[in-house]
Amino acid sequence: MKCHEKSAPAPPRRIYAILSASIVIFTCLTAAPLNADVSKGEIIIGGTGSALGSMAELSEAFQKRNPGVSVKILPSLGSGGGIKAAIDCVIDIGIISRPLKEEELRQGVVDIEYAVTPFVFVTSKKTEGLNFTLRDIAGIYSGEIKTWPDGSPVRLILRPASDSDTLMLKGMSPEMDRAVGKALLQEGMIIAPTDQDSAGTAERVSGSLGTSTLSLIISEKRRLNMLSLNGVAPGVKSLSDGAYPFYKKLFLVTGPKAAPAAKKFIEFIKSGEGSAILSRTGYLPLTGKK
Length: 290
Known about the structure:
alpha/beta, D-Maltodextrin-Binding Protein, domain 2
């Protein structure tokens, strides 16, 4: 058909969306042969930045056991980016910090919860002798408390309003919900878009106060100190026994196009060796959980 000829009317948007989803699923299903060799190939992983450091250690150990498989870990995509990339067949395994929604499950992806890690408040200051309550933290976010106990200013490092860290903060208590909402409305606040940006900014800024996870701090060897809350220091043990109440859940997401070796890698993560690496890098592993 020539450019100036009249074309047929475009299909309704809803039909186009259905066709597009069908094409994506068909492409994913036909991309990898069912009888492919699981001892060879490439696994591409991406998602939330807080899990990338530990995933690098897991992939290194896995590749030593499976030299025919290479594992490529992408820079931080965030949970939403990891889900979309898995749906679009761009990656084999997504790493996310929330369960899949119904509309995402309908697009052919599945999730496996594999670990939890303490959700922590971090600072560049020395924290020895410091103890905060959640009410104190809410006071800082609301602007009622502007200084550390030594009189130096507190510099908040915020995350975008829709980020999982922000939603975690707001879910801690009604007081925190109001305080975080107020902080996001203040002009001139530092807002870090990714987990790595947040950690890096908190390292550089004097008097910083931000959020992170124990796993990121340990696996990336960050020069940050974690705050105790109500006299309890965040850690795998304090999380396991219920003394420290705040944590992030981590999920592995796979789509129809996942490389045959991806399933083998997931089984490795859930193995004894994988669980030991997770524990060493700040996780409470959930071995055997489907």
